[in-house]
């Protein structure tokens, strides 16, 4: 693999130094992906998210082969809910609230089966897992320090959901100076129209928050 690669992205191609690039996989947890978890308690059709799994798996395999830093994130809360703002726990009218017992353990609680990452994308021992209480991966986490430690300047971002945790993380990262390339088919939303708009918002205005590319374009750049 070359030291750098050019990804056919929108709004423009982008050349990345691979040694300064990390893959960030957002919240591919059973709580969002499977029936009985947090996503479904909010009334969502969780089958909408399945389409992101294979593209992420393909990029993850290529990135592992290339030796890039891999970061997985998980949204969730401590068992005593001390890191869960009441405004979040009380929000809306879900069938089960954060912390309530569900079929995969307590909803969105660290250590429960539902909080874990789906088997297809399970982290290796050597990979970084960031537990985050919010939607953005930088808020109240050690992510910034870890990326600085590894000299990372560029992020390949994928996961769920496009308009919530992916967009929030990309916006946080953009403000911190990272070049973010969002993998379009490696993201998904319970609402296909929000997925489309979430990607458009990132790449509009000359790439106001970052770049958007298909997984095939990322794989091609990595293989070049
Ligand atoms: C949500 C997320 N949608 N990971 N979380 O609550 O996008």
Automatic annotation (TrEMBL):
Isochorismatase-like domain: residues covered: 21-208
InterPro entries: Isochorismatase-like_dom, Isochorismatase-like_hydrls, Isochorismatase-like_sf
Keyword Hydrolase: yes
Superkingdom per UniProt: Bacteria
Organism whose genome encodes this protein: Bradyrhizobium macuxiense
Keyword Hydrolase (UniProt): yes
Name of the protein in its database record: Nicotinamidase-related amidase
Keyword annotations from UniProtKB, A to Z: Hydrolase
Gene3D superfamilies per UniProt: Isochorismatase-like (3.40.50.850)
GO molecular function: hydrolase activity
